[in-house]
Amino acid sequence: MNNKLLKSLLSVLIAATLFTGSGVVSSPYASAQQDSPVAQTPSDTSPQSGDTPEESIVEIPAPDASPEDNESAQRIADQLADTSPSVVVEGQKNLRFGEKLQVSIALKNIPDTVAAEKFVIQYNTSKLEFQEVKAAGSHIQIVGQQEAPGKITVITANPNSKLVSNQPIIIVSFKAKAAAGVDNVTVSAELGLSPDGEYGTAGSSTLDLEIEKGLIGDLNRNGKIEIGDLAKLVHYFDLTSVDPQWERIAEGDFNANLKIDLADLAILARKLLDKPFELIETTVADIHAAMQSGELTAEKLVSMYLKRIDNYDSQLHSILTVNSHALDIAREMDAEYKATGKLRGPLHGIPVIVKDNYNTVGMPTTAGCICLQNNFTTTDSFMIQKLKDAGAIILAKSNLHEFAFGTTTISSLGGQTNNPYDLSRNPGGSSGGTGAALAANLGAIGLGTDTGGSIRIPSSYNSLVGIRPTIGLTSREGIIPLALSQDVGGPMARTVADAALMLDVVSGYDKNDLATSYSIGRIPSSYTDYLDVNGLKGARIGVIRDSSVMGTNSEVIRLTNRAIAEMERMGATVVDVTVPNLAKILSYNSLSGTEFKFNLNDYLNSPSIGPDVTFKSLSDILATGTILESQRSSMVARNSIEVLETEAYKDILLYRTRTTQQSLLSTMADNKLDALLYPSTAAPVGGSAGSANRLSPFSGFPAISVPAGFASISGRPDSPIGIELLGKPFDEGTLIKLAYGFEQGTKYRVSPELFPALTN
């Protein structure tokens, strides 16, 4: 840096120090309107060289002046003012929220000796979001920049050229927020002069603004939502926030996931149809569209679901605990959205039903057992925290088969949960509380866990979509374990799209679950990218018809064959396959019988356990006599296992897993398959779910259950049945693609008639 430039910069910095008391205010603009900076010249604050000291100035009364004299004096004053350095601030004055505002800052009447400048830009943080500042030309160097809420300070230098009056020096970019109204941006400037290091001011200037809220979805800015807006969104489909063109379509990112995807198209299509919001069978996209149109708030949505729980759950017994803070959280979400115009994340304001074996701060985590009804954990499980970070609201904790060991969903704390399609039947399990609640529209989306079928069985029996992820895709941290070698948490939803969106949110590496390290580099940018209505076209799917997997129930077989025919109609090739070693694989027991005691004892001694929980082992729990009586004998048997590392255990853990993985992968490779297919449950609700659900946990591979229709049962209501697709490890995207194509081509899910919309 040459001495001339250094001296000029020092003069600016010195001026910044000296001007602390000159009226240049450092507090944020938003704090008070009267704090706007009022620039003063140096002569306003301190005597300059050669000035008469203030104490010696004697005021002499001016003689009476004629009107002509006054007019002449004013002309002279105006001429002098016109020749003084001043700030010029220009930019678009009328904005709509979400629009980018570029404020151009220049100087006029600039002395030739100006070599450095200091600009202070003040703005209202509730109306504008600062984005960047850049030099307006190569002759300008930004040599210093400081940001504070409502205030940006920029120091520039022009070492090799003179400034030109009214020529922009810097460009400051903002984004208009949703808080509409009148406001302004105020800029003051100080000048550093060379060669003597003198300084001066250029006063201040204000750009008045008016921000309009505008019509959400009006991408073409013509005051209405029309097909052209959808066409524009389609043009930018798959664009992400890292693309240079992002600003052109950013306001079309309705679900706030920094990408233009199918959910955004669905939200805009709903606006185009002007479809009124309906709670029954609503989706995340529907909810966000209604929120963005102003038709719905998170508070109203939570209230609607709470009303349904209050009116209907006495018949279902699906809910163990309602979140007493849900409405307060919803109000906070609404206030945040009103202030920023942005959704916090892809699940902003979405009420979630959570199986009650996930640690959830502020709510008991019980596994359905009376013994843990005071287990208020000190931390959230990893997956619950990810839901909250994405904007979800934990609405309620659902009943489950006690300690997740069973498929009928009965517990000492919650009793028997009923199936919403037939209240005399169970909903499957162990995640049956989540399944029943979602099917009856008591919540928007839900979480289950799966050790041997506990997501997919209740999904089948409640006409839901359930995803059991690859072991390692989602974290098991903070989940009451059944058998960690097989346990995994995953989404349950009424649609494939919502399940895929949930999987986006809850997947990922967790340092507290080393198995999730396998997922690094194997998670796509979004599972919603696989939502292809033509997802079955060109696919190859293998059907396992062995009776140990398919079962023998004629209705289930009929529905499976119908599903196969539908897939073929939609472009898939479906072939029968034989899985080697199938009988051997299915002869093995689940590890829940072996690992449970040891895994549970570890959980009971973890730092996050509720301080009021005094139990430290399964033995302590059994001693209370509070455990579900029908499970007592099996729990006693599990508690009698003294050592985990037995030869039998090692055989199951190693040989069973390896054999299952190799057999499934070789079947898919030999037949060039995208997935394997079989019924999610081998019999309608009330019968045996069968053994097919073991293939996924025994291998660790992913599987998805999707509604396939209703089985006819003589003298009883029809029973929902699902088909299951099993894929390669970490290939959930392909399963979602196939399931979505099937779902969209069939639309087999039907809401239970016993739980209609409530009237106001």
Kindly summarize this structure in a few lines.
This protein is of the alpha+beta class and 760 residues long.
Report on the structure:
The chain is α+β, with helices and mostly antiparallel strands and 760 residues long. It is built from 21 helices and 23 strands. Strands 11-13-12-16-18-17-22-23-21-19-20 form an 11-stranded mixed sheet, with helices on both faces. A hairpin with a 2-residue loop joins strand 6 (141-148) and strand 7. Helix 4 (227-235) runs antiparallel to helix 5 (262-273), helix 5 (262-273) crosses helix 6 and helix 7 packs antiparallel against helix 8 (326-340). Mean pLDDT is 88; it is low at 1-63.
Layout of helices and strands:
Layout: H1 3-18, H2 42-45, H3 67-82, E1 86-90, E2 94-96, E3 100-108, E4 114-122, E5 128-135, E6 141-148, E7 151-157, E8 170-176, E9 181-193, E10 198-212, H4 227-235, H5 262-273, H6 284-293, H7 298-316, E11 319-322, H8 326-340, E12 351-355, H9 382-389, E13 393-398, E14 410-411, E15 415-416, H10 432-439, E16 445-450, H11 456-461, E17 465-468, E18 488-493, H12 496-506, E19 540-544, H13 547-550, H14 554-569, E20 573-577, H15 582-587, H16 592-604, H17 618-624, H18 629-639, H19 647-670, E21 675-679, H20 695-699, E22 703-713, E23 716-726, H21 732-746
Parallel strand pairs: 2-10, 12-13, 12-16, 19-20, 19-21
Antiparallel strand pairs: 1-3, 3-8, 4-7, 4-9, 5-8, 6-7, 9-10, 11-13, 14-15, 16-18, 17-18, 17-22, 21-23, 22-23
Helix pairs in contact: 4-5, 5-6, 7-8
Protein name: Amidase
Organism: Paenibacillus roseus
Keywords: Signal
